[in-house]
Amino acid sequence: MESLFERYRNLMVLLVMLVAQIIGLASQVHRGDAGRMSLDTRDSGGVRLVRLWANAIVSPPERFFHGIWASTFYVWSNYFELRHVSEQNKDLQKTVDRLRLEEAALMEDARQGQRLQAMLGFEEKYIYQTVPAQIIGTSGSDQSRLFYIDKGENAHLQRDMAVITADGIVGKVREVYPSSAQILLINDQTSGAGVILETTRIRGVLRGNALGQPQIVGLTNDSRIQPGERVLTAGGDEIFPRGLPVGTVDTIIKDPDQDGFIKIIIKPAAHLDRLDEVLVITSVQPRFPADQKQDMSESETLKGAEVEQEKAQKASEIMAERLPGLIVPNVPPDQQPLKDDSNPNPVARPVPALHPDRFTPDTTPNSGAPVPGADASSPNQPEATSPSSSETPKSGTAAKKPKTAVPEKPALDPNARRNP
Amino acid sequence: MSVLTADSRRDLEIHRYPVYLYGIVPLVALVLQAWLPRVVGKYAWFDLPLVVTVYFALGRRSPIQGTLMGCAVGLFEDALTHHPIGINGIAKTVAGFLAASVGIRIDVENRIIRVGLIFLLSLLSSALCLFVNRFLLGLNVEINWPIELYIALGNAAIALLLFPFLDRFQLRD
Question: Which residues of B touch A273 (CB under 8 A)?
Answer without folding.
Answer: 41-42
